[in-house]
Amino acid sequence: MRKMLMLILVSFTVFAFAGCAAVSSPVSNGVLYTGVKGPVTATQADTYSKVGEASCSSFLGIVSSGDASITAAMENGGLDDIHHVDHKSTSVLGVYSQYTTIVYGE
């Protein structure tokens, strides 16, 4: 009986917090796992040889930190001009999520 109550409590807790650490997704967010990439913007630039990334993360939607701005990604990659920008979103059980901005350019 005690094991059954513990299982119910753990299940309720997981479902209660599911989705608290959500990320932006061009499709949909998975209940158990989300791992998607998508476009943000593009420019008229012809080529790119450098890539910069910047990320932010969240735990249960309670604690969030980081700088996923395009400016931070440009600084991290040593870019002056942008060719295009993508993003990557990851979420695990709605407990942990991460959003990454990826900038391509020169």
Describe this structure in words.
With 106 residues, this protein is an alpha+beta fold. It has one domain. It has 2 helices and 5 strands. It has helices at residues 2-17, 70-77; strands spanning 33-42, 50-59, 63-66, 82-92, 96-105. Strands 1-4-5-2-3 form a 5-stranded antiparallel β-sheet. A hairpin with a 3-residue loop joins strand 4 and strand 5. The chain is elongated and about 65 Å long. The model has no long low-confidence stretch (mean pLDDT 83).
Strand content: 35-45%
User: Percentage of helical residues?
Assistant: 10-25%
Estimated radius of gyration: 18 Å
Number of strands: 5
Read across the widest sheet, the strand sequence of neighbours is 1-4-5-2-3
Low-pLDDT parts are none
Mean pLDDT: 83
Query: Sheet with the most strands?
Result: 5 strands, antiparallel
Return the string of H and E elements: HEEEHEE
Distance, first to last CA: 63 Å
Helical segment count: 2
**What shape does the CA trace take?**
elongated
Overall tally of domains: 1
Computed structural class: alpha+beta
What descriptors fit this protein?
106 residues; alpha+beta; 5-stranded antiparallel beta sheet; 2 helices; 42% strand
List the helices and strands and how they pair.
Elements: H1 2-17, E1 33-42, E2 50-59, E3 63-66, H2 70-77, E4 82-92, E5 96-105
Antiparallel strand pairs: 1-4, 2-3, 2-5, 4-5
Summary, kept brief:
With 106 residues, this protein is of the alpha+beta class. The protein contains two helices and five strands, in the order H-E-E-E-H-E-E.
